[in-house]
Specification:
The complex is a heterodimer of chains A (424) and B (167). With 424 residues, chain A is of the alpha/beta class. In chain A, 33% of the residues lie in helices and 18% in strands. In chain A, the strands form 4 sheets. Chain A has a 7-stranded mixed sheet with strand order 13-12-18-17-14-15-16, sandwiched between helices. In chain A, strands 4-3-2-5-6 form a 5-stranded parallel sheet, with helices on both faces. Chain A is globular. The radius of gyration of chain B is 16 Å and the shape is globular. Classes of the chains: A alpha/beta (424), B alpha/beta (167). Bound molecules: iron/sulfur cluster. The site of iron/sulfur cluster has 13 residues of chain A, from helix 4 and helix 10.
Chain lengths: 424, 167
């Protein structure tokens, strides 16, 4: 029978020939990712209580990102216990190398077809590589670490197809904000979203990661993209391989829970007003809203591709008076590459302050949290009240290009105006 | 079990349930601020056995399970909603807090007293003598709730001889 990509991965992990939506199955987990916030400090007491060793330490990856660089007493203490745990439990550990969702694939841990759990709500990011990856809480993670298994209700597949191609100045982040606006934050119904269409196939891996990452904002369990040659080339470029990926795709005629079609060519840059990603609208509707802080950061919006696109807007320009631009590259590897290509130089010349490769103010941690009544435009995924700092702060979500354009203008601005200027 | 109903709207998020700035303290401190941004009298007013009834997408946002833990700490006996955010739903059941879907919650009012029958999948409004149907829980989750959550459930399985993985 025709199956969806999600059903194929789940069936394999459940040791079954096929599965159907609504069935509850137990699957074997190929990989579990945890970070310093929800990881060792929360799972270790439960593992002790259960008296269980790790099911397989070679299938566990620990990444420190939420409390890096440890500039508060609390943060420093948590990092110390995270490091000790990595040694004691003998797991792969990436310390201070960047944000977990970006580090996990770039260090070669993900392959198409894998069943993966992550102790973080943006775990659907792994779906960009054709892995079924979803987020769970700490108690459930402890259960996975002790047994190597987890239950799943086989999801419906919600196919989101983007036809045509994106216009210049419009990127994956705009696609996701538009989807949050149209479908709402429960549009994904905790089912599997799958992105397809010519505009998706044309995206780079890091742009695809942005789509999968924000499946979380749609309330989906997973955000899948069928692997293709782009996936294979990327995995090979980091020194890994894609394995047997052909056939990992939704069969023609497979039963879908829903099928939405959007025209990428009609999409304009988007911004989401405080305090919900679902408050998305075209940038023109918010133009001239003054901003104090522009933030290019997070797994969603500060990967190499994001930095490069933002630098394209900023090159040769200066920040507007009174605006502070903060740039927290999502990983050390991405920052190194941006450095080598002169991209970091563009940020420095424009007057930006460069922050560590960590979650930073996206998670509301550290000394740069937003102060009272500050208005911020941010490349992150969420703008819930008080998430990035004071409850009185206001966060607008946008693409890294729109954040850069707004930093130059001093108010929310359309990045396409700067593209046009650059080419004239 | 019998409890009073606290009624909430759609899209209650994890930052409202477990506000970030109190996450560093213990669960008691966090629970004392649970939902106060939506309803200031909630943390002090809720009593053991009370039942939360909410609209769509209850518990959306982060994977922090303190969102469910805070409710359990306050003595809430169950959360009933028209729909749940997936991670919250899993976290609640894992922590032994029943999370139940009621496709139609019309007629339920704040302050109603109700009997919750988990086995029958029904919420009975006592004064109104009216029953609200709840979607049945899958078998595996019903067992986990009976055991008191995932940790006691796994303990039982380990004790019953399910091999622990070899290190
Ligand atoms: S950068 Fe933000 S969204 Fe990404 S993992 Fe860190 S806290 Fe979560």
């Amino acid at each position: 029978m025709a199956s969806t990509l999600a059903e194929k991965i789940i069936a394999r992990a459940a040791g079954r020939d096929e599965v159907r939506p609504g069935e509850v199955v137990t699957v074997k987990v190929d990989l579990a990712m945890i970070h310093d916030s929800g990881g060792p400090r929360r799972v270790e007491p439960i593992l002790r209580e259960l008296g269980a060793p790790l099911f397989d330490s070679s299938r566990v990856v620990l990444i420190s990102d939420h409390f890096v660089p440890g500039d508060t007493d609390e943060g420093a203490r948590i990092l110390e216990m995270t490091r000790a745990w990595a040694k004691e439990r003998k797991v792969a550990f990436h310390d201070g190398e960047g944000i977990c969702h970006v580090v996990l694939p770039e260090r070669g841990h993900l392959r198409p077809g894998m069943m993966v759990v992550g102790g973080d709500s943006h775990s659907p990011t792994g779906g960009a590589f054709g892995a079924y990856m979803f987020g769970i809480g700490a108690t459930e993670m402890a259960g996975v670490l002790a047994t190597g298994e987890i239950w799943l209700k086989v999801p419906d597949t919600i196919l989101i197809e983007w036809t045509n191609t994106l216009s210049p100045g419009v990127v994956a982040k705009d696609m996701m904000l538009a989807l949050c606006g149209r479908l709402g934050m429960d549009g994904g119904r905790y089912q599997a979203v799958e992105y397809s269409g010519t505009a998706v196939s044309a995206l780079s891996m890091q742009e695809r990661m942005t789509l999968s990452n924000m499946a979380a904002e749609l309330g989906a369990q997973a955000g899948l993209i069928a692997p293709d040659e782009t996936t294979q080339r990327w995995l090979e470029s980091i020194g890994g391989g894609a394995g047997e990926w052909r056939g990992l795709a939704t069969d023609p005629g497979a039963r879908l829970g829903a099928h939405h079609v959007f025209d990428a060519a009609l999409l304009e840059p988007q911004v989401a007003a405080p305090h919900s990603p679902a408050n998305a609208a075209s940038v023109g509707q918010a133009a001239a809203t003054p901003v104090d802080i522009a933030y290019i950061g997070a797994c969603t919006g500060a990967k190499y591709e994001d930095l490069k696109a933002a630098a394209g807007i900023l090159a040769g320009r200066k920040l507007a008076g009174g605006v502070e631009l903060l740039v927290a590259p999502a990983s050390r590897r991405d920052q190194d590459r941006a450095e080598a290509e002169g991209i970091m130089r563009v940020f420095e010349d424009a007057g930006a302050r460069i922050l560590p490769n960590a979650c930073g103010i996206c998670a509301g941690y550290g000394s740069d949290r937003l102060g009272e009544n500050v208005t911020c435009i941010s490349s992150t995924a969420r703008n819930f009240k008080g998430r990035m700092g004071a409850a009185s702060s206001k966060v607008w979500l946008a693409s890294p290009l729109t954040v850069a354009a707004s930093a130059i203008a001093g108010h929310i601005a359309d990045p396409r105006e700067f593209l046009a200027e650059a080419s004239s | 079990m019998t409890g009073r109903i606290f009624l909430f709207g759609d899209d209650i998020d994890t930052d409202q349930l477990a506000p970030g700035q109190y996450m560093k303290g213990g669960i008691a401190e966090l629970a004392a601020h649970c939902l106060e941004s939506v309803r200031p009298d909630f943390p002090a007013g809720v009593r053991k056995g009370d039942i939360l009834v909410a609209g769509r997408n209850f518990g959306m946002g982060s994977s922090r399970e303190q969102a469910a833990e805070a409710l359990r700490h306050l003595g809430v006996s169950a959360v009933i909603a028209r729909s749940f955010a997936g991670i919250f739903y899993r976290n609640a059941i894992n922590l032994g807090l029943p999370a139940l879907v009621a496709p139609d919650t019309t007629g339920i009012e704040d302050g109603d007293t109700a009997d919750l029958d988990l086995g029958a999948g029904r919420l009975h409004l006592i004064k109104k003598n009216r029953s609200i149907e709840l979607e049945p829980l899958p078998e595996n989750l019903r067992k986990m709730l009976e055991d008191g959550g995932l940790v006691p459930h796994l303990k039982k399985r380990f004790a019953a001889g399910m091999e622990k993985p070899t290190p």
